Predict the structure.
Amino acid sequence: MVTISYFYDFVKIIESVENDNTYKTAWGRAILECIKNEEYEYQGEKIVIYHYDLVQKIMKYYWNQIAFFNLSQGPSSILEARINEIKNEFHDNTRITYPVWYDKVETFLKRNPVRFERQVKKFITIANKGIAAKFEKIGNKKYEIYDLDTKLKLLRFTQAQVDILNKEMSILEDLIDYKWASLIEQYNKAPNIIRKVIGSKAYRFKRQNLVKYRNVLIEYYHLEGAKDFYTGEPVKIADISLEHVIPYHFIYGCDIWNLIITSKETAKKRRANVPSMEDIKKLNKRNEVLFEALLNTKLRVRFELGNALEKHLVNRYYIDLKG
């Protein structure tokens, strides 16, 4: 009979992960996601999750962290090497050089079923040869988390095991996210790593509605009409694009101190570009002027802007971005 000890065993495994072994956090997270989404099947009294389904989630996590957020997983990550292989193939075929979310890459891979299955098979091989068996072990001790079938490439769980994982889902998800973030912090000098690790679970990329920031910029800064931050040319309301000076994939946040108005054409040309020092100086000056204009208001962005100026966030993040 499965008791709460099963939950504690799962926790012990995640807490034991060290160095650059993020494959355990990825494997654990994939198991939880399959259970949460009921991506499994019943075979007699057992619940079965196939490696085929698990590794597609792992591909998503690693792509979003490595290719979109540019987060290294450590100096010897085999899975990172596989992601870079997909990244090169994607860029060679699409000529897209700016970061994209995994759903776009998956669509690209599935246009050629043979190509997609080839990549999935590579991840299954990695999982079957090492990850699946190593996940259950801490040193020489093996914990009975699931019944591994390397021949059929699947995991078998009892109903009681799945029930416990479902019941403690939020605790385990949080533990994995924070453990994963702590593992890769030593290899990455970037802001908001925990938010990026959590965000990498999402299948589709969801951007925040930026209309309120556009309205503040127009009302309190562009008093004589909106102008393109980079060119200085007037921009019609319908042609406004609100863009990040320090790229969004690095910041992973929408804050007024990093948002500027450009034309849609300028935004297209500069997509994901690394800003110059002149751009940074110009942004700092804009922020100082905007803060003065907001000084007598009670708008929340005033306090966010004041905090950014006080802590020199633009300069700090720019230095980190440049490495």
User: Anything to note?
Assistant: The longest helix spans residues 113-134. Residues 211-322 form one domain. The chain has a mean pLDDT of 94.
